[in-house]
Amino acid sequence: MKTVTLLLALLLQPAFGFAQLYVTRTAQISFFSKTSMENIEAVNNEATSILNLETGEIGFAVLVKSFRFDRALMEEHFNENYLESTKFPKATFHGKITELSKFNIKKDGSYPVTVEGDLTMHGIKRHVVSQGEVIILKGIISATALFPIKLADYKIEIPSLVAGKIAEIIEIKINSKYEPKS
Amino acid sequence: MRCFPQLLLASLLLSLPAWSQDDMMKMLEEESEKNRKPDYAAATFKTTRIINGHSIENVAAGVLDLRISHRFGFISSGPSELWGLDQATMRIGLDYGLTKRWMIGVGRSTYQKQYDAFTKYKLLRQSSGVRNIPVSISATGSIMYKTINYSDPTRINFLESNLFYSGQLLIARKFSEGFSLQIMPTIIHYNLVEGTTDPNDIYAIGAGGRIKLSRRISLNAEYYYQLPNYKLPGTYNSFAIGFDIETGGHVFQLNFTNSTGMTERSFISETTGDFFKGDIRFGFTISRVFTIVKPRTQSTTNPVHWR
Asked: Containing H/E element for B25?
């Protein structure tokens, strides 16, 4: 009898752990290029993200086409010439929050975290590390992160003619608010 | 408790991370699938004109496009005319995007001192994915008014007799990243024609296409076939071949064509040179866009202040 109870308890254990998935399809990803000649900003409000609170795994997927710019022509050039969104329609990130043990879903607060993982865009996968913040407010989890990327790392070429207008290092900002996955 | 080691093993196996990296990517894929919208074909052509005539493209809402076009004399006129460069005819035009689908434009040409205005509306957008539409379709209409007087001084220049109209359907498909094709059924109406047997309505079918040579350069060609019984005497079908070169906010269109005019009635129905017998002109268009009204900025739920 004892054995059966033990067996049952052990069987149930992973099942309980699995329930810690959080998801959003309206995560916001924006980027910013700042030069003395021009500031360029684009926003995408349609990113999908999944957060696994049990393992600390975090993933993002975004359609490159849904970045919105102030200028229509910039948006066209971004898709046609720089990110080549027909060839590489998606950008993804898959990584891990390292200080997972620090926060407690039941306790409101903001926790600085480090996220580490692989960012894939323009067909190139690179390891990135970002500082971020996880905010827990009344059981709702939001996450923000801000990190720089170097365009050359992703083979995004800037023609010399516009070199002064596009920064070599672009800041990427992430802002997402999760709901428990049903 | 003889079975303890086995139980321990079972427990270890079961409590291994419930999912791997592949699971995460698969789940992301599933979730983003729910977000999916129709994938509209973008940039079927680089600008709103293939060469002389309209392409399926519109200027974006709130954007003003200043277009300056030149067509020169026949290259065959030789060095004394600097291969045609001595005889320039031009059109200066302003186009504006009212909405995502609707644009308007005005222009003035040196050819017969002509004013023109047009409107272009996108009826259907080529899309794939959630909704599958094989082609984009636009309708354009234009009105042209020549202000040059008749050579016969005894003739009264009625306003009506100097007006021309054109209507076109543009049916385009972007077959691949590098190849787009467009068909343009066209009607041109003359209020007044020269000869008594000349038709007042000209019917033509145009075909145009582009091949992308690099990310910023494409090769375009355009041909308008006039139906034999509905064309003005002594005119030839318009043909043009050229390059679109994109440099930031500008697009340069360099071309070779047999047509002088740059409005529908002047190049489709009044081309007097035969391209294939060497009546070829060099020409170019410079397009520069200005953003007049910026699209509504998207709400940033939690703005981070940039350095």
From this structure: helix B21-34
3-state secondary structure of B185: strand
> For B155, which DSSP code?
S
Residue B18 forms contact with A (CB below 8 Å): yes
Q: Which residues of B touch A23 (CB under 8 A)?
A: 31
Cβ(B307)–Cβ(A32) under 8 Å?
no
pLDDT tens track for B228-255: 999 999 999 999 999 999 987 789 999 9
Residues 228-257 of chain B with CB under 8 A from chain A are 246-249
Residue B153 contacts A where some CB pair is shorter than 8 Å: no
Contact residues, chain B, for A141 at CB < 8 Å: none
In total, chain B counts a number of residues equal to 307
pTM of the predicted structure, to 2 decimals: 0.82
Q: What is the ipTM of this complex?
A: 0.76
Here the tokens at position A135 are 């905010």
Coil, helix or strand at residue B53: coil
Side-chain-facing half-sphere of B241: CA atoms under 13 Å: 4
Which stretch of DSSP H or E encloses residue B109? strand B102-109
Residues B153-172: tens digit of each pLDDT? 888 888 889 999 999 999 99
Tokens at B277, concatenated: 């017998």
Assign B23 to helix, strand or coil: helix
